[in-house]
Amino acid sequence: MGGRAKNKQDVPLPLELEKRIDGKVTKKLNDRLRHEAARARKQAAAAKRQTGGRGAPAKGAAKAAAETADKAAGKRKGPAQSALPRKKAAVTTTAPPKDEDEDEDEDDDGSDDHDMGAPDGGWDNAALESDSEPGADSFGEEEPSDDDDEGEEDNDSDKEPARMPLSLLDGDDDDDDDDVGGGIESYDEFDTGSDDDGGEGVTFRDMEKRSRRLDAQREEDEELARMEIDEAAEVVEGERELFALPSAEQIAAEQDAPPDLAQVQLRIQEVIRVLNNFAQLRDGGRPRSDYMDQLKRDMCFYYGYNDYLMDKLLQLFTVSEAVEFFEANEVARPVTVRTNTLKTRRRELAQALINRGVNLDPIGKWTKVGLTIFDSPVPIGATPEYMAGHYMIQAASSFLPVVALAPQENEKVLDMSAAPGGKTTYCAALMKNTGLVVANDASRQRSKALVANIHRLGVANALVCNYDGREFPTVMGGFDRVLLDAPCSGTGVISKDASVKTNKGPEDFEMLTRLQKELILSAIDSANADSPTGGFIVYSTCSVTVDENEAVVAFALSKRPNVRLVETGLDFGRAGFTSFRGKAFHHSLALTRRFYPHAHNMDGFFVAKLQKLSNKIQAADNSFVVPAGSGVQLKQQGKKKKKAQ
Ligand SMILES: C[S@@+](CC[C@H](N)C(=O)[O-])C[C@H]1O[C@@H](n2cnc3c(N)ncnc32)[C@H](O)[C@@H]1O
After folding, report:
1. Active centre residues (catalytic)
2. What are the Basic and acidic residues biased-composition ranges (predicted)?
3. From the alpha carbon of 518, which atom of ligand 1 is closest?
4. Ligand 1: centre distance to CA 416 (Å)
5. Distance, CA 488 to ligand 1 centroid (Å)?
6. DSSP state of 604
7. Measured distance CA(29)–CA(130) in Å, rounded
8. What confidence score (pLDDT) does residue 211 get?
9. Considering only 131-135, 148-152, 359-363, 535-539, which range has the smallest mean pLDDT?
């Protein structure tokens, strides 16, 4: 289990690290750093003016201002922290103005910088937006104006950098902006005050002097503004080139060190940024595979997947979308219920639950029986309505195969792997308790819940049995519709069962896909192509891997040319893959539907609908094979028997 999996709470980052994060956080941080640098310079300029612009003292103030700004920006020298990816030019992008650059190497203590910024608020921007003013303000008060001794400055620079009290790290961005504005205002006031030297009356010459000083001041301000803009551009540009993959030594050191989730999360973002703009942001000649390898390592650790599954899932998505998928798997899907229309109507059920204080909404336009439960003061699996069978707690995705199957009244329907019965009972409801639903499941144990649900929901047209689905055609056949909600790896329901992340290896997928292929052939063979109303088979899984979905359906199409894919009737979801990793599937695979937690806010799911066109299969030698199960075979055998008699 990876760090992220163990600790779903977002990770507070040290300021030092926050500085490097792409996007909103980085922008805010950069804004803050620029504010601080500008404020420091302005304060230095103010100090300079205060001393009449007489060189040395102002220089000391400016240097101190720059030092404070740099410290606030986490600027440091010395060896990079072990195993941290180095960011080229990261320091220079937030550097103070030129006249202070000479001291850049001296102002670094760096030992405790991580203490500065670990925000309590976690991985949001709150703490980032807070902690600039106190340092800058205290700087303004603390710095002696007459310290221009280089030696002393050097010594000062070796001192422990002043740390901001943690209590001061809790402000917000607005405060920050206000204070920047406030700084400028007080600067103006201060400056105006300085003109009233000695309380002398204002003379024309004074006015000229003041005017010249104001002009000089304006020029200085404009220069500062230009520098700020240049600096901002430099930061953006710098960031583009900053990230470098860790060296082998750094990776080794990282493996020996305690896990650092924040660092890994940061690197995931950086690598994705590089991969998304590889030509511009790659590090020298490093190939894409180096970045992918690092990304996989980091994501396995951060999200807690084994290498095999990580590889498999990364094949499905762009790296950015893969992260969305992994993130969505860390969040529970909304609780949803299906109204049992054998006993009530959705409106009545909703009213009854609302009367109990339940906060709910319809799931969406695509279903007339689903409700999303946002919160409930009572356990939703123990209300009187639940006990009375007015609803089934059922994932929204689990409605989809039944919607696609669309069983009709008086039909004969097979649910080949039915336990615990969410789909069986939905079929029965759509069929208004008419016809027959054969609810089969190989597991006797799981069938107990199936039977219980059938009873609770008042299903009267179901027959429960426990065959291995692979032998079903030899047991019973001639179904109008067959649902195969196949046993699968569960990669679509990781938010419900995180053990999938680590407990599925190649042998599981091999075993499962073999079983799925055998089951789908059985499901096809159990359907009657001559059904006046049906002849349909729906194959579904709660997995997102291609092996268990498109590849299984493609296999079925190749082995059973008497079926074809048809529209599922689901007007959302993504089209299935028609090719994957160099392998082309039949173009009709686009008719299958994929659902993802990050895209559809429901469990990952796959739905394919097949129509059986004939009960016979034409063999290579042009003879016809009639597999057991369709019902036709029995008739033919009967005919043969009659002939023989
Ligand atoms: C995804 S679950 C079915 C969920 C069910 N359709 C529902 O909606 O409640 C897969 C089921 O397949 C059953 N199963 C596994 N191997 C089987 C086999 N060879 N034949 C029939 N059922 C099998 C499992 O016992 C499990 O209950």
Report:
1. 542
2. 16-39, 203-217
3. 19
4. 7
5. 9
6. -
7. 10
8. 67
9. 131-135
